[in-house]
Amino acid sequence: MVGKSQIKLIKSLQLKKNRIQHQLFVVEGLKTIQELLKSSFEVYKVLSTDEDFVTDHEEVSELISSADLKKISSLNTPNGYLGVFKMAKLGTIQLNDWIVAVDTVQDPGNLGTIIRLCDWFGIKNLVCSTTTVDCYNPKVIQATMGSITRVNITYLNLSEFLQASELPIYGAFMEGEKVYNSAISSKGILVMGNEANGISSEIAAFITKKISIPQFGDQTAESLNVATATAILLNEIRRA
Amino acid sequence: MVGKSQIKLIKSLQLKKNRIQHQLFVVEGLKTIQELLKSSFEVYKVLSTDEDFVTDHEEVSELISSADLKKISSLNTPNGYLGVFKMAKLGTIQLNDWIVAVDTVQDPGNLGTIIRLCDWFGIKNLVCSTTTVDCYNPKVIQATMGSITRVNITYLNLSEFLQASELPIYGAFMEGEKVYNSAISSKGILVMGNEANGISSEIAAFITKKISIPQFGDQTAESLNVATATAILLNEIRRA
Q1: For A231, which of B121, B217, B232 is closest by C-beta distance?
Q2: Any residues with CB less than 8 A from the CB of A89 and at least 6 apart, and which?
Q3: Right CATH number for A99-239 from 3.40.630.10, 3.40.50.150, 3.40.1280.10, 3.10.450.50?
Q4: Closest residue of A to B118, CA-based?
Q5: B4-86 with B99-239: one CATH topology?
Q6: What confidence tens digit (pLDDT) does each residue in A18-69 have?
Q7: Which residues form a coiled coil (chains A, B) (predicted)?
């Protein structure tokens, strides 16, 4: 059975500053935990109410009571499995393919979905402004459905990164060229903006090609959600 | 100031059965309320803590205290505006363009995003299996960002609807024809399935064209989220 000090440590990981201090993050759900155990992420500990699971993974896991699990889970109804993993060392950002860059994406579900999309479309590198939600936030991990293990995510000063880049830099703007008519480069950086405000003016200054997703019918909709816009644009980039 | 019986009624609308009984639903947030006030939805009442708003809309609105608003809001931090509207009478389903059909989509955010996508891509009609989350659920309304007012949504027996239809019926399957190579019909029904299980076998029997969204890179991702898959497929249908 897991001890009190462990419970206290794991509970503290709900806050970003403690995740950074300990270089640990929490994952809930059997399926995602199994994906992480198979990945290059190093496991710290898996806690479970499932005795069979603990027996099968005795080197890395410990039994936990439902009551204790409820104390440390970020879910309303914990599902019986909580894994703690070590944060990944940053990989090198490869510049020979498309890169996705996000500027202050704040909803965990949106960032998680964008990570899952990068995985689907074979985008190896995602760069995030330091104002973007932490990718080790449990809701982000949840929404990635395991894709967190296959995308190299780097937090950096996005202005400096774009300024230093020699790749074409694409961004979606209402007044941009319709993406269907656009000759799309074989590599580049696709910048996606904040949910409410889009790409900030500071970052917009670095965009070398403004594109737009055509709208149909009465054109009454105001905008697309950032994750669905990313889906459409990555599909356009890959089908080109 | 709003009375106790009104508060009790509005609070009861958090449950679907009460929404159906009273034919009323709740919307929170100034922007969406303003969209609904401009739309064909009939207003029942808008409650607000904002005296200026109430003065400007005196025929339809009443002042509410922050404490009372907290009691009836479904948000952790209510934002000062709560509207109650009458459910729309069902429009006729038009068969001269694409229709989106959802089979047991259960996450409110996903259904709301799909409604927003229909609006963007000029899809007038969305049909939902009766096992799909209620479109008047506050989280669905929230995620539509006002698009709920511009898409005709019908709950029906999806099997019967598809069986009676003479339109081509498309569905996404891993083994389907790659959508990039596919000759896409000028009208039809696009069926999207449940988050975990995809299109049910009962519904799959009616699909006349199986399509797939190509995957890239190492092809390690397991699937796409249903809302992002809808985004990509509607974009493919409209760009065809």
Answers
A1: B232
A2: none
A3: 3.40.1280.10
A4: A221
A5: no
A6: 999 999 999 999 988 999 999 989 999 999 999 999 999 999 999 999 999 9
A7: none
In chain A, domain spans: 4-86, 99-239
Q: For A120, which of B117, B143, B215 is closest by C-beta distance? A: B215
Report how many Cβ contacts below 8 Å link chain A to chain B: 107
pLDDT beyond 90 at A221: no
Please check whether residue B181 touches A, CB under 8 A. no
Residue A110 confidence (pLDDT) = 97
| pLDDT tens digits, B43-77 | 999 999 999 999 999 999 999 999 999 999 988 88
- Nearest residue to B234 via CA among A181, A216, A109, A182: A216
CATH of B4-86, one of 3.30.1330.30, 3.40.50.970, 3.40.50.300, 3.40.50.720: 3.30.1330.30
Which residues does chain B have within 8 Å of residue A109's beta carbon, measured at their own beta carbons? Answer: 109
SS (H, E, C) chain B: CCCHHHHHHHHHCCCHHHHHHHCEEEEECHHHHHHHHHCCCCEEEEEECCHHHHHHCCCCEEECCHHHHHHHCCCCCCCCEEEEEECCCCCCCCCCCCEEEECCCCCHHHHHHHHHHHHHCCCCEEEEECCCCCCCCHHHHHHHCCHHHCCEEEEECHHHHHHHCCCCEEEEEEEEEEHHHCCCCCCCEEEECECCCECCHHHHCCCCEEEECCCCCCCCCCCCCHHHHHHHHHHHHHHC
Partner-chain residue, chosen from A109, A119, A221, that has the shortest CB–CB distance to B147: A221
Query: How far is A208 from A132, CA to CA, in rounded Å?
Result: 22
**What is the C-alpha separation between A161 and A159, in angstroms, rounded?**
5
> pLDDT above 90 covers what percent of chain A?
85
Asked if B196 is an interface residue toward chain A (Cβ–Cβ < 8 A), one would say: no
Q: State the complex-level ipTM.
A: 0.90
- Per-residue pLDDT at B240 exceeds 80: yes
| A214 interfacial to chain B (CB closer than 8 Å) | yes
Bridge partners, B214 (sequence order):
none
- Say yes or no for a CB contact (<8 Å) between B123 and A217: yes
Burial environment of residue B110 by CB neighbours within 10 A (0 to 12, 13 to 18, 19 or more): buried
Give the model's pLDDT for residue B3.
85
Interface of B with A in 221-240 (CB under 8 A): 221-225, 227-232, 235-236, 238-239
Least CA distance to A31: which residue of chain B?
B222
B215 shares contact with chain A (CB less than 8 Å) = yes
